[in-house]
Amino acid sequence: MNLKHLTDKELVKETKRLVQSEREITTEVLHHIKEIDSRKLFSDYGHSSMMSYAIKELNYSESAAARRIQSARMLGAMPEIENKINDGTLSLSNLSKAAGFFNRENIKEPSKRKAILKEIENKSARECEKTLLEMSPTKPLPRESVKIVTPEFHQLKINVSESTLKHMNDAKELLGKHAINDEFMDDLSKEALENIKRKKFKITDKPRVTESTSRIASNQTKRDVLKTSNGVCEKCGSLFMLQFDHREPWALGGKSEASNMRLLCFHCNQRARIRSRL
Ligand SMILES: [Zn+2]
User: Residues with Cβ within 5 Å of ion ligand 1?
Assistant: First the structure.
């Protein structure tokens, strides 16, 4: 595109017009993201979350995806902010910072949320961060992160409470480890994972065969389904809040037998429910 022929005045005017339509399109994108999110449609494309869908299917970077999803959810909850997004009074970056703040400080009341959004209107990202910090009743903890530091290693930064640290130290002593490092964390997480699986999927050394006479599958059926599904969501491969689901719904006569059961994560399960109502 060659714009050399434009006068300075025309160039400035055209740029402003384009930025305005860019904002309007962004709002339209937010509405679409909000709808895909509420239908859990990402599950049909094998994604475990809206975030994964936005990164892999819409080609957004992680931060661009997060800004849009958080803003879309905010727009869903507060439709009155649409004009402010359209005219640039509220940027996506400030909206997503506010969403994080509401979450952290557990601010749910619409009037409080509205008042806070008012405070960050027309502010730069830095000014917005400062305003939110000043409004924070508690001293915010340092940012948590997972960073790739070498092809094999990640650096994990998290804030832990006094009691969590004590539990970790006690586990370290019992396992005979000398430091809270990768080796210890690997041992601890593997142990925890096994325990969670045992509880969730009723894995036992002496399986009892029980008859399934209800909506709830027998423990043996659950173990069979677990084996055939490799312990992951059938649709997206995620582990997030895995649940046993009837392929043919129980209400429509579907049996609680292994052939009619599958493992679905929370979102894919919700999507299946939404689809069955369509
Ligand atoms: Zn899933």
Answer: 48, 233, 235-236, 238, 265, 268
